[in-house]
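Weekly structure sync, notes
Attendees: PL (lead), two postdocs, one rotation student
Agenda item 3: pending single-chain targets
PL asked that the sequence for the first pending target be pasted directly into the notes so everyone works from the same version. It is reproduced below exactly as submitted, 202 residues in total.
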Amino acid sequence: MKKTLIAIALIGTSTSALADSPNWNKLQASYIDTDIETPIDEDISMDGYAVSGSLSLNESIFILANFDSVGDESEFGDVDLDSLNAGIGFNHGITESTDIFATVTYEKLELVGSVDDIGSESFDESGYGAGLGVRSMITDFFELSVKADYLDIDDENAIRYDASAFFHLTENLSLGVGYKLYDLDEIDQDIDTVAATVRYSF
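Predicted structure, written out during the meeting:
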């Protein structure tokens, strides 16, 4: 992760004359596909949607929010996973085309599973997150972003890795792909999500 952050920063330095700085005023909608590891080495695969956005308050402070909702239905039962994070961020331009940023967020995870004729179980906990990342306009049309968050949810620790790439069709409209990983060390499980996203910048 550190090497990736450094590489993107260096790329941003070499192309600063070609691209503007990242725009923090944006709204996004995504189709997402999520896999959850299980103790029996069989992943639970779910799909759904995500909505997110951020808004600049001034040149160096922004607010952000993200909501993901995925689920899976089978002849045996249902599984649903919702996640929410919202908070405040601080960005600083290290070149004309690259920002480093830090965030502090409220985090909430809710997992509900049900088995027909048996009943349901749920996990609904909240906590906080602290993250660092880099956004870089590699060119006027292509953007890369990477971020890592430390999470404390119900006194359990996790690391969330997030990476995305966007192609800017116009000044306002962009299409992107992303990958997000929750690394749950204490229970030795991962939650992986891939996303296809439409972004509107304003």
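Discussion points:
- Residues 2-14 form the longest helix (13 residues).
- Confidence is low (pLDDT under 50) at residues 1-18.
Action: rotation student to compare against the earlier draft before next sync.
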